[in-house]
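Running this now, will post back.
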Amino acid sequence: MYTMCENNSIKEKDKFMNQVTYEKVIWTSLPLNFNSTFGDVKDFSIDDKLAFEIGSALLKKAFGETTFFDYHFIIIEVLEEDIFIVSALPPAEPNRVPLGGDYNVAINKKDGKIIKIWMGE
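Update: finished.
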């Protein structure tokens, strides 16, 4: 459902995920200077919990929610590279490690940028 708002913006409301309301606002213009350094967050870094949320949401969006119905998500911190890797692992038989079928996303710890998305073989 779309609703027109002030300043030529459009607001979209939808219910999803256990009836949580989702609102999306689209502005034709915004009176903010994004080049300003006021309020700049220089020491921002993401932790493992935030990386896990970003990575698992990104994988589900990229490959489809149903792809990961019985997958197990894990997070790996690579200290030397300053990245987190969120991996979705397929179900495995007891005492066996699955080879391939995994989905992965690498996220920069300092700024949260997505570095790479890949699938295992």
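The chain is about 15% helix and 35% strand. More later if anyone needs it.
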